[in-house]
Amino acid sequence: MNTKRKGIIFTMIATILFGVTPAIGKMTYAMGNNGIQLAFLRHLFVLPLFLFIVLYQGKSLRLNRQQLLDVFKVGFFGNTLTIVLLYSSYEYIGVGSATVLHFLYPLFVCCMNFLFYHQKLNKQQILCLVLAILGIFCFMDSSASSLLGALLAILSGVFFAYYMVGMDHSLIRYMSPYVFNFYLVVMNTIVILILAMVLGRIHIMPIEAYILSAVVAVLTSLIGVVLLQKGIYCLGASLTAILSTLEPITSIVVGVLWLNEGLTLLKVIGCILVLLSTFILVKSQNQEGELK
Prior knowledge:
- By secondary structure, the protein is an all-alpha fold.
- It has 13 helices and no strands.
- It is globular.
- Keywords: Membrane, Transmembrane, Transmembrane helix.
Protein backbone atom coordinates (compact mmCIF):
# COMPACT_ATOMS: atom_id res chain seq x y z
CA MET A 1 0.00 0.00 0.00
CA ASN A 2 1.22 3.50 -0.87
CA THR A 3 2.72 5.50 2.02
CA LYS A 4 0.25 8.38 1.59
CA ARG A 5 -2.71 6.01 1.60
CA LYS A 6 -1.42 4.36 4.77
CA GLY A 7 -1.08 7.76 6.39
CA ILE A 8 -4.67 8.67 5.56
CA ILE A 9 -5.99 5.36 6.96
CA PHE A 10 -3.90 5.65 10.14
CA THR A 11 -5.01 9.23 10.73
CA MET A 12 -8.70 8.57 10.13
CA ILE A 13 -8.80 5.62 12.53
CA ALA A 14 -6.99 7.69 15.16
CA THR A 15 -9.40 10.60 14.81
CA ILE A 16 -12.41 8.30 15.19
CA LEU A 17 -10.95 6.92 18.42
CA PHE A 18 -10.17 10.41 19.70
CA GLY A 19 -13.70 11.50 18.84
CA VAL A 20 -15.33 8.69 20.83
CA THR A 21 -13.22 8.69 24.00
CA PRO A 22 -14.08 12.20 25.37
CA ALA A 23 -17.67 11.09 25.93
CA ILE A 24 -16.43 7.96 27.74
CA GLY A 25 -14.05 10.03 29.84
CA LYS A 26 -16.64 12.59 30.84
CA MET A 27 -18.92 9.83 32.09
CA THR A 28 -16.37 9.22 34.86
CA TYR A 29 -16.62 12.82 36.09
CA ALA A 30 -19.99 12.02 37.65
CA MET A 31 -18.24 9.21 39.55
CA GLY A 32 -15.73 11.54 41.22
CA ASN A 33 -13.15 11.80 38.45
CA ASN A 34 -11.69 15.04 37.08
CA GLY A 35 -9.60 16.15 34.11
CA ILE A 36 -6.20 15.93 35.77
CA GLN A 37 -6.83 12.56 37.42
CA LEU A 38 -8.17 11.15 34.14
CA ALA A 39 -5.04 12.38 32.36
CA PHE A 40 -2.92 10.61 34.99
CA LEU A 41 -4.87 7.35 34.73
CA ARG A 42 -4.77 7.51 30.94
CA HIS A 43 -0.99 7.17 31.08
CA LEU A 44 -0.63 4.96 34.14
CA PHE A 45 -2.78 2.17 32.67
CA VAL A 46 -0.81 1.93 29.39
CA LEU A 47 2.68 2.20 30.92
CA PRO A 48 3.13 -1.59 31.41
CA LEU A 49 1.63 -2.24 27.95
CA PHE A 50 4.20 -0.04 26.20
CA LEU A 51 7.03 -1.59 28.22
CA PHE A 52 5.85 -5.07 27.22
CA ILE A 53 5.62 -4.10 23.52
CA VAL A 54 9.10 -2.54 23.50
CA LEU A 55 10.68 -5.55 25.22
CA TYR A 56 8.76 -8.00 23.03
CA GLN A 57 9.98 -6.25 19.87
CA GLY A 58 13.54 -6.22 21.19
CA LYS A 59 13.82 -2.45 20.81
CA SER A 60 16.62 -0.59 22.55
CA LEU A 61 15.55 1.98 25.14
CA ARG A 62 18.86 3.84 24.85
CA LEU A 63 18.53 7.43 23.61
CA ASN A 64 21.22 9.95 22.83
CA ARG A 65 21.27 13.43 24.34
CA GLN A 66 19.42 15.10 21.44
CA GLN A 67 16.73 12.41 21.40
CA LEU A 68 16.17 12.85 25.13
CA LEU A 69 15.88 16.62 24.66
CA ASP A 70 13.40 16.21 21.80
CA VAL A 71 11.33 13.72 23.79
CA PHE A 72 11.13 16.15 26.70
CA LYS A 73 10.28 19.22 24.61
CA VAL A 74 7.73 17.59 22.35
CA GLY A 75 6.41 15.32 25.09
CA PHE A 76 5.96 17.85 27.88
CA PHE A 77 5.00 21.00 25.97
CA GLY A 78 3.20 19.18 23.16
CA ASN A 79 1.55 16.20 24.81
CA THR A 80 1.39 16.60 28.59
CA LEU A 81 0.05 20.16 28.52
CA THR A 82 -2.41 19.30 25.72
CA ILE A 83 -4.00 16.47 27.68
CA VAL A 84 -4.15 18.34 31.01
CA LEU A 85 -5.68 21.45 29.42
CA LEU A 86 -8.19 19.60 27.21
CA TYR A 87 -9.39 17.21 29.92
CA SER A 88 -9.66 20.11 32.37
CA SER A 89 -11.79 22.07 29.88
CA TYR A 90 -14.40 19.27 30.02
CA GLU A 91 -15.15 20.36 33.59
CA TYR A 92 -16.32 23.80 32.40
CA ILE A 93 -17.79 23.32 28.92
CA GLY A 94 -19.36 20.47 26.95
CA VAL A 95 -17.25 17.81 25.27
CA GLY A 96 -18.46 18.88 21.84
CA SER A 97 -17.60 22.54 22.35
CA ALA A 98 -14.21 21.69 23.87
CA THR A 99 -13.40 19.39 20.94
CA VAL A 100 -14.39 22.08 18.46
CA LEU A 101 -12.20 24.72 20.10
CA HIS A 102 -9.31 22.26 20.42
CA PHE A 103 -9.62 21.59 16.71
CA LEU A 104 -8.49 25.02 15.79
CA TYR A 105 -5.06 23.38 15.98
CA PRO A 106 -4.75 22.75 12.20
CA LEU A 107 -4.66 26.52 11.84
CA PHE A 108 -1.94 26.71 14.50
CA VAL A 109 0.02 23.91 12.76
CA CYS A 110 0.01 25.72 9.44
CA CYS A 111 0.99 29.00 11.13
CA MET A 112 3.90 27.35 12.98
CA ASN A 113 5.15 25.63 9.83
CA PHE A 114 4.90 28.89 7.91
CA LEU A 115 6.61 31.00 10.60
CA PHE A 116 9.36 28.61 11.69
CA TYR A 117 9.92 26.28 8.73
CA HIS A 118 8.80 28.47 5.80
CA GLN A 119 6.45 25.79 4.48
CA LYS A 120 3.92 27.05 1.98
CA LEU A 121 0.55 25.42 1.39
CA ASN A 122 -0.76 24.80 -2.11
CA LYS A 123 -4.15 26.14 -3.20
CA GLN A 124 -5.99 22.89 -2.50
CA GLN A 125 -4.57 22.66 1.01
CA ILE A 126 -5.47 26.28 1.75
CA LEU A 127 -9.03 25.67 0.51
CA CYS A 128 -9.25 22.51 2.65
CA LEU A 129 -8.02 24.40 5.69
CA VAL A 130 -10.52 27.22 5.20
CA LEU A 131 -13.43 24.81 4.73
CA ALA A 132 -12.38 22.76 7.76
CA ILE A 133 -12.10 25.81 10.01
CA LEU A 134 -15.49 27.12 8.83
CA GLY A 135 -16.99 23.70 9.46
CA ILE A 136 -15.54 23.57 12.97
CA PHE A 137 -17.03 26.97 13.85
CA CYS A 138 -20.42 25.58 12.84
CA PHE A 139 -20.11 23.15 15.76
CA MET A 140 -19.95 25.99 18.29
CA ASP A 141 -22.83 26.25 20.73
CA SER A 142 -23.79 28.36 23.73
CA SER A 143 -22.04 26.03 26.20
CA ALA A 144 -18.72 27.47 25.04
CA SER A 145 -19.60 30.69 26.86
CA SER A 146 -17.45 29.69 29.82
CA LEU A 147 -14.36 31.80 29.26
CA LEU A 148 -12.07 29.59 31.32
CA GLY A 149 -13.19 26.37 29.65
CA ALA A 150 -12.93 27.92 26.19
CA LEU A 151 -9.46 29.27 26.93
CA LEU A 152 -8.27 25.88 28.21
CA ALA A 153 -9.57 24.14 25.07
CA ILE A 154 -7.98 26.68 22.71
CA LEU A 155 -4.64 26.49 24.54
CA SER A 156 -4.79 22.70 24.27
CA GLY A 157 -5.01 23.21 20.50
CA VAL A 158 -1.94 25.48 20.52
CA PHE A 159 0.16 22.94 22.42
CA PHE A 160 -1.12 20.05 20.30
CA ALA A 161 -0.07 21.95 17.19
CA TYR A 162 3.41 22.21 18.71
CA TYR A 163 3.28 18.44 19.33
CA MET A 164 2.49 17.67 15.68
CA VAL A 165 5.07 20.10 14.31
CA GLY A 166 7.67 18.83 16.78
CA MET A 167 7.00 15.23 15.73
CA ASP A 168 7.53 16.23 12.12
CA HIS A 169 10.73 18.26 12.65
CA SER A 170 12.78 16.40 15.24
CA LEU A 171 14.71 13.15 15.73
CA ILE A 172 11.51 11.64 17.14
CA ARG A 173 10.45 11.15 13.54
CA TYR A 174 13.08 8.41 13.22
CA MET A 175 12.41 6.72 16.56
CA SER A 176 10.24 3.67 17.08
CA PRO A 177 6.79 5.03 18.01
CA TYR A 178 6.60 2.49 20.82
CA VAL A 179 9.94 3.55 22.33
CA PHE A 180 9.00 7.22 22.08
CA ASN A 181 5.61 6.61 23.64
CA PHE A 182 7.11 4.54 26.45
CA TYR A 183 9.22 7.52 27.50
CA LEU A 184 6.30 9.86 26.88
CA VAL A 185 4.00 7.82 29.12
CA VAL A 186 6.64 7.57 31.87
CA MET A 187 7.15 11.34 31.84
CA ASN A 188 3.44 12.14 31.72
CA THR A 189 2.61 9.71 34.52
CA ILE A 190 5.18 11.31 36.84
CA VAL A 191 4.50 14.95 35.90
CA ILE A 192 0.70 14.70 36.00
CA LEU A 193 0.77 12.74 39.27
CA ILE A 194 2.82 15.50 40.90
CA LEU A 195 0.44 18.12 39.50
CA ALA A 196 -2.60 16.17 40.72
CA MET A 197 -1.17 15.77 44.21
CA VAL A 198 -0.23 19.46 44.46
CA LEU A 199 -3.74 20.48 43.39
CA GLY A 200 -5.45 17.79 45.47
CA ARG A 201 -7.15 16.20 42.45
CA ILE A 202 -6.58 12.52 43.33
CA HIS A 203 -9.79 10.88 44.59
CA ILE A 204 -10.99 7.34 45.24
CA MET A 205 -13.65 6.31 42.72
CA PRO A 206 -15.93 3.29 42.13
CA ILE A 207 -14.50 0.44 40.08
CA GLU A 208 -16.62 1.43 37.05
CA ALA A 209 -14.76 4.73 36.80
CA TYR A 210 -11.39 2.98 36.71
CA ILE A 211 -12.60 0.55 34.04
CA LEU A 212 -13.85 3.38 31.84
CA SER A 213 -10.61 5.28 32.42
CA ALA A 214 -8.67 2.17 31.31
CA VAL A 215 -10.77 2.01 28.13
CA VAL A 216 -9.95 5.66 27.42
CA ALA A 217 -6.26 4.95 28.10
CA VAL A 218 -5.97 2.02 25.68
CA LEU A 219 -7.98 3.64 22.87
CA THR A 220 -6.12 6.95 23.09
CA SER A 221 -2.65 6.61 24.61
CA LEU A 222 -1.91 3.20 23.08
CA ILE A 223 -3.81 2.79 19.82
CA GLY A 224 -4.82 6.32 18.83
CA VAL A 225 -1.54 8.08 19.62
CA VAL A 226 0.59 5.50 17.77
CA LEU A 227 -1.65 5.61 14.70
CA LEU A 228 -1.60 9.42 14.69
CA GLN A 229 2.18 9.46 14.90
CA LYS A 230 2.40 7.03 11.98
CA GLY A 231 0.04 9.31 10.10
CA ILE A 232 2.38 12.26 10.72
CA TYR A 233 5.35 10.22 9.49
CA CYS A 234 3.50 9.34 6.27
CA LEU A 235 1.73 12.64 5.54
CA GLY A 236 3.51 15.41 7.43
CA ALA A 237 2.02 17.58 10.16
CA SER A 238 -0.07 19.90 7.96
CA LEU A 239 -1.93 17.21 5.99
CA THR A 240 -2.44 15.10 9.11
CA ALA A 241 -3.86 18.10 10.95
CA ILE A 242 -6.38 18.78 8.19
CA LEU A 243 -7.51 15.15 8.03
CA SER A 244 -7.83 15.08 11.81
CA THR A 245 -10.69 17.58 11.63
CA LEU A 246 -12.92 14.52 11.16
CA GLU A 247 -12.73 14.12 14.94
CA PRO A 248 -15.38 16.77 15.72
CA ILE A 249 -17.79 14.96 13.39
CA THR A 250 -17.21 11.77 15.35
CA SER A 251 -17.90 13.65 18.57
CA ILE A 252 -21.17 15.01 17.16
CA VAL A 253 -22.31 11.56 15.99
CA VAL A 254 -21.43 10.01 19.37
CA GLY A 255 -23.29 12.81 21.13
CA VAL A 256 -26.44 12.28 19.05
CA LEU A 257 -26.50 8.47 19.15
CA TRP A 258 -25.09 7.85 22.63
CA LEU A 259 -25.71 10.94 24.74
CA ASN A 260 -28.98 12.01 23.09
CA GLU A 261 -27.63 15.44 22.16
CA GLY A 262 -29.48 17.50 19.58
CA LEU A 263 -28.30 17.83 15.97
CA THR A 264 -28.86 21.31 14.58
CA LEU A 265 -28.85 22.45 10.96
CA LEU A 266 -25.66 24.42 11.65
CA LYS A 267 -23.88 21.27 12.85
CA VAL A 268 -25.03 19.40 9.73
CA ILE A 269 -23.54 22.18 7.58
CA GLY A 270 -20.34 21.93 9.60
CA CYS A 271 -20.11 18.19 8.98
CA ILE A 272 -20.59 18.74 5.23
CA LEU A 273 -17.84 21.39 5.13
CA VAL A 274 -15.36 19.20 6.99
CA LEU A 275 -16.12 16.16 4.82
CA LEU A 276 -15.82 18.31 1.69
CA SER A 277 -12.41 19.56 2.83
CA THR A 278 -11.23 15.98 3.34
CA PHE A 279 -12.58 14.92 -0.07
CA ILE A 280 -10.76 17.77 -1.83
CA LEU A 281 -7.54 16.96 0.02
CA VAL A 282 -7.57 13.27 -0.94
CA LYS A 283 -8.60 14.05 -4.52
CA SER A 284 -5.77 16.56 -4.91
CA GLN A 285 -3.29 13.93 -3.73
CA ASN A 286 -4.61 11.49 -6.33
CA GLN A 287 -4.34 14.10 -9.10
CA GLU A 288 -0.73 14.76 -8.19
CA GLY A 289 0.00 11.07 -8.53
CA GLU A 290 0.88 10.65 -4.89
CA LEU A 291 -1.81 8.03 -4.34
CA LYS A 292 -1.72 5.03 -6.66
